[in-house]
Design a protein that fits this description.
single chain; alpha+beta; Immunoglobulin-like; six-stranded mixed beta sheet; 15% strand; globular
């Protein structure tokens, strides 16, 4: 069908409809782009103000340029009716999503942050949306939210096209003043925001009723009859108070506008998702700093500046408490003395330009005492009319380089003897395979193998990288002791100092950042690992997990698909992908992936029966498919093989929760905690455990 300069099929391209309009997926024949075409119904002519509202929607929305607000391309008329062409969006409305499943609190907060950002832009343009509801909020497949439908939005100072006392909007989420038909301000939208968040997070309407009048009366009576925590177990108290403040029947007790509401939500989000402090690499050892050599056409001024540069460098380096700086009178470094580093400097001054060449050497044990090994060279240059400023700039730039270089050099191992690189690499590869079988026993066995690998080759980047990953897992298995994350970063640093192209080290460093809550840093490391080695399967899987956690299911899906292609025996990837495909509304593909995962698990377990990670994720796939017998068979087999293992117990608890067995689930998770597994990192965000949240035993575990 042709309408204006758009082409679409009215039967197959229909996206939705309302009382006054219909929306189609169409092709703009002039620009060749796909749009969502909203056409005013012809019978809307019986409402003389319908076209006025339609034009107003186009004007208001087109003025709101923001990533979380749908973009209007064009308004026009054809065949006697009006149309709006807007960006075509792929995804599902919150209304459809919450009908299918409950969302985790972490995802709810992420959605709410985007929604309040969008609404803040609306309010900054002096507009009141007046129709906030889950059906007008679209969540795209990449996790980005879009606020839709400004059909009844009004500027605060705009002349009304509806009479005073007329009810306009969706009553389920209306403010009391909107139900009464009073004049509205931004605080009415804040009430609707709270009502929407109540429904999305609690999974129930704030003002349920069997009829229109009943809902209206409930809203006018005051706050919701049940607090969110009475509807959904384990509701975070700070989040509940935030929602109830938004929904206060007295507008004066609500947030004044969406900008204030967004700031309030940011505070709640920070409290919900605390992170660990990051430890910087300490500079330790003894550094020898001899006289600085001079060059250039002005030797006298160079010698004066060299003395100042040396003094300033010594002072700046000495501020690192673990680093001792020794000033040496000779240019030639001594031999046979116990120093860790030697810093040689050559200064050249030509007019207003200064150049400082740095040569950092490290001492290593040798047969005849410590031997100096020159490792790193750098040059800094600056130009300035003022000699003091030039000196200061040279020292500042040098220190920026030296801190990094000394930290890198400190990570290099000391070793004297033959390296057995091939054997060490084989041990490291086998250790990583054992590590991923899941249990504490496997972690200890892998760690022992990695120590053997480093005995064979203390310069093995692969062994240090695998050891870093083992330390991250130790954080999970040993009560969340953050010192293991610090050790993981240190071992990753050693691996990268030995081999900057070690993809496994970037994956391990990303994993440590991931569990510390530094998701952007983690993603950067995973991307680096994939760029270095596109076959680094764990980086694909962990980056996919972060994207899925952020709601970016569209981009998580190919990463998990790639993981399966690279490592078909890693059953966790099938389990994660199954959930992602469900969120993308691709149910048939999800079922196919589950079947493939089950087949792959059976094949793998026939060869490696003690792979608890594979067995437990096989049980999870069975549980998600409703196959209780299959799930119980596998989880029982896992517990027989590892009856006291915390990792096994925790995942057994998740499986029992999926099967609707809360008491068994609580018992298993309690055992996991008793055995040292860090369950608190999962209790708030894991939606598999939602069935447990109302139980006092679960609350005790979470505290």
């Amino acid at each position: 069908m042709r309408f204006a300069h758009f082409q679409f099929d009215p039967d197959t391209d229909r996206l939705g409809e309302g009382p006054l309009s219909e929306v189609y997926k169409a092709v703009d024949l002039q620009l060749g782009r796909t749009v969502a075409l909203k056409i005013l119904r012809s019978h809307a002519e019986i409402d003389p103000q319908a076209d006025t509202r339609f034009l107003r929607e186009a004007k208001h929305t087109s003025a709101l340029a923001h990533p979380n607000i749908t973009t209007i391309y064009e308004y026009g008329q054809d065949q006697g009716t009006s149309f709006i062409a807007m960006e075509y969006l792929q995804g599902r409305t919150l209304e459809k999503i919450i009908k299918d499943q409950a969302l985790g609190y972490e995802e709810c907060v992420r959605i709410a942050m985007q929604l309040t950002q969008a609404l803040a832009v609306v309010h900054k343009h002096n507009l009141i949306h007046r129709d906030l509801k889950p059906a007008n909020i679209l969540l795209q497949d990449d996790g980005n939210l879009k606020l839709l439908d400004f059909g009844i939005a009004r500027a605060r100072d705009e002349a009304g096209i509806t009479q005073h006392g007329m009810l306009v909007g969706t009553v389920l989420y209306m403010s009391p003043e909107q139900v009464r038909g009073d004049e509205l301000d931004f605080r009415s939208d804040i009430f609707s925001l709270g009502a929407v968040l109540y429904h999305v997070m609690a999974g129930a309407l704030p003002f349920p009723g069997e009829s229109f009048p009943e809902v209206c009366m409930a809203i006018l009576d005051g706050q919701p009859p049940r607090r969110p925590s009475q509807v959904r177990s384990g509701f975070p108290p700070a989040l509940e108070e935030y929602i109830l403040r938004c929904m206060n029947p007295d507008p004066g007790r609500r947030f004044v506008n969406a900008e204030a509401a967004h700031a309030g939500l940011a505070t709640v989000a920070d409290n919900l998702t605390g992170t660990n402090a990051r430890r910087q690499t300490a500079l330790t050892g003894t550094l020898l700093l001899p006289e600085i050599q001079c060059g250039g056409s002005t030797p006298r001024s160079c010698h004066v500046m060299a003395s100042g540069v040396r003094k300033d460098l010594a002072g700046a380096l000495s501020r690192n408490k673990g680093l001792t700086v020794v000033l040496h009178p000779d240019i030639t470094p001594p031999t046979g003395e116990a120093f860790d580093y030697y810093l040689g400097c050559n200064l050249t001054v030509e007019g207003h330009r200064g150049k400082l060449e740095l040569s950092l050497g490290t001492y290593r044990p040798g047969e005849n005492g410590p031997q100096l090994v020159e490792t790193l060279r750098d040059t800094v240059t600056h130009t300035d009319d003022d000699e003091w400023t030039l000196q200061e700039n040279l020292v500042r730039s040098s220190m920026r380089i030296l801190r990094k270089r000394i930290a890198e050099a400190s990570l290099l191992p000391t070793f004297h003897g033959d390296r057995k690189e091939g054997e060490a690499k084989a041990y490291a590869s086998k250790a990583r395979e054992v590590l991923h079988r899941g249990t504490t026993k496997h972690l200890l066995a892998a760690s022992s193998m990695l120590r053997r690998a480093l005995d064979l080759d203390p310069y093995s980047a692969e062994a240090f990288a695998c050891l870093a990953e083992a330390k991250v897992r130790k954080f999970l298995y040993w009560d969340g002791d953050t010192s293991f994350l610090d050790e993981a970063r240190e071992h990753s640093g050693r691996a990268l100092a030995l081999d900057p192209q070690c993809a496994l080290a970037h994956t391990a460093l990303g994993f440590a950042n991931h569990l510390s809550g530094y998701y952007e840093d983690a993603q950067r490391e995973y991307r680096l690992a994939i760029q270095i080695d596109n076959k680094e399967w764990l980086a694909h899987r962990l980056r996919g997990a972060i994207l899925a956690r952020e709601g970016n299911f569209k981009n998580a899906s190919p990463l998990l698909q790639r993981t399966i292609g690279l490592k078909p025996s890693h059953i966790a990837a099938y389990d994660h992908l199954f959930t992602v495909l469900q969120r993308l509304d691709r149910y048939e593909e999800a079922l196919e992936i589950a079947d493939k995962g089950i087949a792959a698990a059976r094949k793998h377990l026939a060869r490696v029966a003690d792979d608890m990670d594979a067995r437990l994720h096989l049980a999870m796939l069975y549980a998600r498919l409703g196959n209780e017998e299959g799930a119980r068979t596998e989880v029982d087999a896992a517990r027989r093989r590892a009856p006291k293992d915390g990792y096994t117990a925790f995942h057994a608890g998740c499986i029992f929760a999926l099967l609707g067995e809360p008491l068994e689930a609580i018992s298993a998770i309690s055992l996991a905690q008793d055995r040292g597994y860090f369950v608190k990192s999962e209790l708030m965000r894991n939606t598999d455990l939602d069935i447990l949240r109302g139980l006092p035993e679960f609350q005790e575990l979470a505290n």
